[in-house]
Design a protein that fits this description.
heterodimer, A: mainly alpha, two-stranded antiparallel ribbon, 18 helices, 2 strands, flat, B: mainly alpha, 10 helices, 68% helix, disordered N terminus
């Protein structure tokens, strides 16, 4: 008979299990994860819930059985070859069985007996853009086979790992609109890197006046950044047909930067509105205000219909971020997020979070701003007793 | 701090991602993908950390592995299906950790992190809470892997029995018996570790 917790009192009733708090997750991890997701992996729909693997004992048994079968088959082949009569050779005297040397086929195995991964399996790992895994896989092969393909793959993994770091730096620089840092990061990404196209698109989203397209030297104009307007426009349209709005925005923006074009800006605006990126949409909207089609596409993002900068979804995200920050004792961040939520959609819950954060921070000015509404709230009185009530 | 933490804990659990953002994420839009991760990052990190008995090593790798699986498979997630997005993600995280543990069955979980230090105006209460946190962590580490998984999913992530059964690919009765045993074991450990507080009769 099974023990059913529904049928018995909970022995932990009254014990505050939440006292065991987990530490805050590292803040940079989200960017690291996003940077590993490529366009093609985003849409593959592969099953994510892996089966729970059988216990190691079972797996080991399976492995030994497979290994035994291979060795047995190899031994049989060798014995047959050894005993097969050849017309041009004297018939050998039958050798005693104990002297037959069993030589297994040359499988790429390590000292521990583990079969090294195939080169194809190592190459497939590139799709995940987890370069450490690719390098580890290639190194395992180098140890056993030492083939040139594995060495080349290991070198590529090292190069791409460096490029991925540069791409992260580029992303940060673009977010900070720091053009020199972005260019420096872009220059660290070689043209044959898998990150190169993405990096170029990302770089193109910087404000268009970021760089002169030409510099004058004593030899005349030197093109610093040769660009192909038609190709960029084609890529932008193609991205649009695939609903890849971020890519479309990048390509259209790059096309406009390459050769100022109303058509490119219109594509960029369309992409920005589809993405609901107000910042990007605002950049292009003025030129097309009044065009019915664009008004419709951009309703709720820019223009007269926009009553606020953010949606209910944005509000929810701000609130969640504020709570998460609070759980991690990141009071300044909690305050910023709670205020952003309240600005997005004025709400008592958001203001309460802001007050909590302000009190924890010791920010008297902010605490005083929200205190009045909660002065009769005993919890807030406790939290703010040294700050807001003064 | 204790009150604030208690208050925060009592606030509604973050709701599911709105349908529009989920659809945008399923199409691979950066902003929406970021929303998916931002919304579930803390929960997945906490789950992995607790399933590892409160040890930080390998947690970042496993969390990253989990989200890579989530984001790759997101286009195939059916929001009208039986699982909520949050449960689906926690299921993936649970299996990532369990399979990782099975690949290294002899790895010890000793040497866990120090509990997150509670801060507040009442040092005695903070100390009590820190002791309790350390005792719970030690108790959870002593649980067998299957019991620990059920315990963490139920007590810290509020999954119901059916969701836990799906996540661990076991039947409902097994969930209930494992949870009962885990709770009893944790209580017994707490009674030994903190006899003044939990040593008496239940």
């Amino acid at each position: 008979m099974s023990i059913e917790p529904d049928d018995v009192p909970d022995p932990l009733a009254g014990i505050d299990l939440r006292a065991w708090q987990s530490p805050a997750p590292p803040m940079g991890q989200i960017d690291a994860i996003l940077s590993q997701i490529t366009d093609h992996t985003r849409v593959d729909g592969a099953p994510a819930i892996e089966a729970i693997t059988p216990p190691p004992g079972a797996r080991q048994r399976t492995r030994w059985i497979a290994l035994g079968a291979v060795v047995g088959a190899a031994a049989a082949v060798i014995v047959m070859l050894a005993l097969w009569p050849r017309p041009d050779a004297p018939v050998p005297a039958p050798a005693p069985t104990k002297e037959v040397v069993v030589v297994p086929p040359p499988t790429p195995t390590q000292a521990g007996g583990t079969v090294a991964p195939s080169i194809a399996a190592c190459r497939d790992l590139r799709a995940s853009e987890d370069w450490l895994k690719v390098l580890t896989c290639a190194n395992e092969r180098i140890k056993t086979t030492g083939d040139q393909e594995s060495r080349d793959l290991a070198d590529q993994a090292k190069r791409e790992a460096a490029a991925s770091l540069a791409f992260k730096d580029l992303r940060t620089a673009v977010e900070n609109k720091d053009e020199p840092a972005a260019r420096k990061a872009l220059d660290r990404i070689p043209a044959d890197s898998v990150y190169y196209e993405r990096a170029k698109s990302l770089f193109a989203t910087l404000p268009e006046d970021r760089e002169p397209k030409h510099v004058t030297t004593t030899d005349g104009d030197v093109d610093l950044a040769p660009c192909d307007f038609d190709a960029l426009m084609a890529q932008a349209r193609e991205a649009g047909t695939l609903n890849q709005w971020a890519r479309m925005l990048g390509k259209a923006g790059a096309a406009d930067a390459c050769s100022s074009s109303k058509a490119a800006r219109k594509l960029a605006l369309l992409a920005a509105c589809k993405l609901k990126s107000k910042t990007a949409a605002d950049k292009y909207y003025a030129e097309f205000a009044g065009e019915t089609a664009m008004e419709q596409v951009c309703a709720g993002v820019v223009g007269k219909t926009q009553s606020n900068d953010c949606s209910q979804a944005d509000f929810d995200v701000f609130i969640d971020e504020a709570k998460d920050a609070g759980k991690a004792n990141l009071w300044a961040k909690m305050l910023v997020k709670a205020e952003a939520a309240n600005k997005c959609s004025p709400s008592k819950a958001a203001r309460q979070l802001a007050l909590m954060a302000a009190c924890r921070l010791g920010n008297r000015e902010k605490a005083a701003r929200y205190w009045k509404e909660f002065e009769n709230n005993s919890q807030m009185t406790q939290v703010c007793k040294d700050v807001a009530k003064d | 701090m204790v009150m604030l933490a208690a208050h925060l804990a009592s606030l509604p659990v973050a709701g599911e991602l709105d349908e529009l953002t989920l659809r945008r994420a399923q199409r691979g839009e950066d902003e929406a993908l970021r929303s998916v991760i931002v919304r579930h990052h803390a929960a997945v990190h906490a789950l992995v950390w607790r399933m590892r008995g409160g040890r930080s090593d390998r947690v970042d790798d496993l969390v990253q592995d989990c989200f890579l699986r989530v984001l790759r498979a997101l286009p195939g997630f059916d929001p009208r299906g039986p699982a909520r997005l949050s449960t689906w993600i926690l299921t993936i995280a649970t299996r990532v950790v369990l399979n990782d543990r099975r690949r290294a069955p002899n790895e010890s979980l000793d040497g866990a992190d120090e509990p997150v230090a509670p801060r507040g105006n009442e040092p005695a209460a903070a100390l009590d809470r820190a002791q309790l946190a350390a005792a719970i962590a030690a108790a959870v580490r002593t649980l067998a892997e299957p019991q620990r998984a059920v315990f963490v999913l139920r007590e810290y992530h509020d999954l119901d029995y059916a969701e836990i059964a799906h996540a661990l690919d076991i039947d409902l009765g097994t969930v209930k018996s494992r949870l009962a045993r885990a709770r009893t074991a944790v209580k017994e450990h707490l009674a030994r570790a903190l006899p003044d507080r939990f040593g008496g009769a239940r």
